[in-house]
Design a protein that fits this description.
The structure is a single chain. The longest helix has about 60 residues, at about 1-60. About 30% of the residues are buried. The chain is α/β, with parallel strands linked by helices. A hairpin with a 2-residue loop joins strand 6 and strand 7. The model is unreliable at about 25-35 (pLDDT under 50). The radius of gyration is 26 Å and the shape is globular. The chain contains eight helices and eight strands. The chain has a domain at about 1-95 and about 290-325: 2-Layer Sandwich (Pantoate--beta-alanine Ligase, Chain: A,domain 2), CATH 3.30.1300. The chain has a four-stranded antiparallel sheet. A two-stranded parallel sheet has the order 2-3.
């Protein structure tokens, strides 16, 4: 009798364990299926964005947040992906300050001369100084701003001769721990934290100031900013005399759907009533076309959530290159 009870107890324990193991395997299988479905949905959503960017290039001369690529229809997503919930955000990086544009290099096969490149670099320096001295950021005075700009230029150029307020390897080597100046183009913005004058407060902001990092991009080298998508602090830095009211009026103008076609002209800002006629934006600094886009996609399938982040480069004909793709 006792032996029978022990045997039955043992069988019950085995059965319970087996059921638990089966349930666990079923759960893991479902999670794996949902994960695969999420990843497929992420790639499909990215392809959808690329299609929208390509189609937009054929339809519009300029790029703005009124375009189709910036407003992927949620009803369309639900129809295409069924039970998978998708959120897509596309940002235009060409509306930001290009850190690598401060030091211009002659492009192979072009007719650029040294004087032209020097002129462009000087205009970029002035743009950066206006940006840093706007009062939005943790910058004490013009000397601090020049330190940031000169040090960034020294980090980007290939020589080891520091500018008046800049720094090269002789300065960085004296730090503890010491390191060498980059002397190359910046690939990731996190590298800025290594450069003289680039404090955490300047990069990320504090309780009273904004941070500059979200207004910068490591993509692009021509220095031209898309005024159709540029944020307020970048627009203000485009010329002396631009005020908050002018910028607010520009942003309002470009957000109104009836002005969509007007944004295909590089001088649309002249149609803004609040923008004075005696201020002209330098066409070496501005544009209305975009080349680089960041794409953030969130996919939810039941309890599984995945996120994909992409960096796209689009040429003049609409063809695109996937420069980065990361899933987490």
């Amino acid at each position: 009798m006792l032996l029978a009870l022990l045997t039955m107890s043992f069988m019950v324990v085995l059965t319970v364990q087996l059921i638990t193991d089966v349930n666990q395997q079923v759960h893991e299988s479902r999670s794996a299926i949902h994960s695969v479905q999420n990843q497929e949905a992420l790639m499909s959503a990215l392809a959808l964005v690329q299609t929208a960017l390509f189609a937009d290039k054929q339809e519009n001369r300029g790029d703005s947040y009124l375009d189709q690529w910036a407003h992927i229809n949620q009803e369309t997503l639900r129809t295409l992906f069924g039970g998978t919930e998708l959120q897509i955000r596309v940002a235009d990086l060409t509306g930001l300050l290009q850190v690598n544009a401060l030091v211009q290099k002659k492009q192979v096969g072009t007719k650029q001369n040294t004087k032209d490149l020097a002129k462009i670099m000087e205009k970029q320096r002035e743009l950066w100084l206006r940006f840093l001295l706007s009062g939005n950021f943790v910058i004490e005075d013009e000397e601090d701003a020049r330190t940031v700009v000169d040090s960034l230029c020294d980090w980007l150029d290939k020589d080891d001769e520091p500018r008046e307020n800049g720094a090269e390897s002789s300065f960085y080597g004296s730090l503890s721990p010491g390191y060498s100046a980059g002397n190359h183009s910046i690939i990731h913005l996190s590298e800025l934290a290594l450069i003289k004058g680039m404090s955490n407060e300047l990069l990320y902001g504090d309780e009273e100031h904004d941070g500059i990092l979200k207004y910068l991009t490591a993509t692009g080298t021509n220095g031209k900013i898309n005024i159709n998508t540029a944020p307020q602090p970048v627009l203000m830095a485009l010329a002396d005399g631009i005020t908050d009211d002018m910028v607010e009026a520009m942003i309002t103008f470009r957000e109104e759907k009836e002005n969509h076609e007007a944004l295909d002209s590089i001088d649309w800002y002249k149609q803004v009533d609040e923008f004075p006629g005696d201020i002209t934006l330098d066409q070496d600094l501005i544009g209305i076309q975009s080349t680089y886009f960041s794409v953030d996609i969130v996919s939810r399938e039941v309890t599984v959530v995945q996120r994909g982040s992409a960096l796209l480069e689009r040429d003049d004909k609409g063809a695109q290159s996937l420069l980065q793709w990361h899933v987490e």
